[in-house]
């Protein structure tokens, strides 16, 4: 240690180095003085603490400066990234605005084209009327006659896709185009009234005070809060004649108002939906029909708004799901992915049996199951089956078709299925002497190779009358549809997604001259979902028809059923007259057998007859006979005993197809409840998850009922002691009747 620091060190205190931990242990310090210590190192070098601390502090400063520099660099990098994102967001926003403006311009342009066509046709008709009125003289009349004949000349137009059209019809709007325009106008009007409610029954004084908009809104808000119990925001309020129309902010508020409007019951004020002119006329017809029926005393079963509708001038009532079998000028066809048919109930088969042509796909029926099923199918149809196939040794079979044609509906061979591919079959039916080809489709996941398989069956053959229907497993969105002109086509669908093969399927159909019916046909203008399951909703089931048959289609509808996740497709076609179809369904009476009754009354009758025979036999024995014919006597005894027994006839009716011994009323009620939930979901009143949950509860109920029945039967079988009773129980479950031995042994 240096000499100049020796004294200071002594005053500050003694320090020593721990050789193990190399730590300085300080015994005492003297404040206010600069102290330096010597540390013993391994090599014996002396290092001052002051220099060590200074070096470390400088190192810390350098590290801190480096860290701050790195932070500043990162900050600049993030600022650049954020600036780039903001620029991209602005560019994307501008791009969306340009696209929106472009779509608006195209829409206005298309509307302008349609308006110009309508105005041009009106001017043309006015010119023709004026020119016809100026024609005078015989020569001019001949010219007019020649002109009218020339207008009726038909020619093939290249722009019309090879269709025959009259010269007078060039440029005119067709009936379908006019209906489409009317529907667009009706939808726009209906959409504008969607959030409106109508308050009726107010006095003239109250209606007369509705002059200022702000006061009207305040009055409507207070009225709904005090009288209905719903507090909501009012968008607009105005008077229209004797009623007040209120526009709310959103649909949830309107739903609350319509749910709680029953609180006005008993008064003269009531709330209704804001209906269009056409809807009001329909509602007036329904109310008038109900009022007339109630005046006649027919109050039972008549409720407005529960699925009834008026048809015809006589006001006949028909339920939504009822099939009108009396109108036989139409042939009805069914295409349905039923997801198995062996597990279906009798109500399913009752619905299926109401159609003239039936195509069920994904039946899961193998050859062994078909042998059990074919003898139980309804006798009103001719049936044929394409078997499902297993991919491996385990698991159930996949695919399969069941085809049925009503007897008398056209002409078909015993073997209905003519051509068969994996997932596609074709049948041929002769309707009014013309061959109609019907192809049923069940596509694999994603619709793989569906178009190729259809091309293999159809090929280059020109088929005038062709129908293709089934589960394609392809989503087409709103592609295709009715062509208004060369640039505009209309087709609606609730499923907006276009799958991988969607455009390709539509292009193939257009090349073949086929029309898709989903979303552009009477009965399905909105393009309802055809698949509703736990995985989501989509439109993947279609019906395509050729141009010749397209004009005879009167209705296409997606029915509502809960037997499968897929919904059935119903096609109604103007085809054959009433004289061609046997509308009477064959009623199977069953097999009649004769049984011997041994109840108390039958035994008494038998005893009386045998006593009479005994008296007669004793009188015969008193007469001497040289030869007794044993065989003759035995025949007489057997005949008398047989005639003395009491016999009854019994009809053994076959159980209905789909009969289940465990099915009870609770299952029927639950199935109806699930169907009502589906209707509510389709109307937008509930969420899809609620319907899926209700359907799952229905399946759980069926499984529970089946399990309870099996447990009961097993318990009953365990309690049986005698072997005869056990076999009697087994044969009854098998469907075999216990036969009685009526033979009488000969006694010599």
TrEMBL record:
The keyword Secreted does not apply. Residues 11-25 have a biased composition (Basic and acidic residues). Gene3D superfamilies: Endonuclease/exonuclease/phosphatase. GO terms for molecular function: catalytic activity. Residues 68-117 form a coiled coil. InterPro entries: Endo/exonu/phosph_ase_sf (IPR036691), Endo/exonuclease/phosphatase (IPR005135). Residues 437-569 form the Endonuclease/exonuclease/phosphatase domain. Residues 1-25 are annotated as: Disordered. Keywords: Coiled coil. Pfam families: Exo_endo_phos_2 (PF14529). This is Endonuclease/exonuclease/phosphatase domain-containing protein. It comes from Cyphomyrmex costatus. The lineage of its organism: Eukaryota, Metazoa, Ecdysozoa, Arthropoda, Hexapoda.
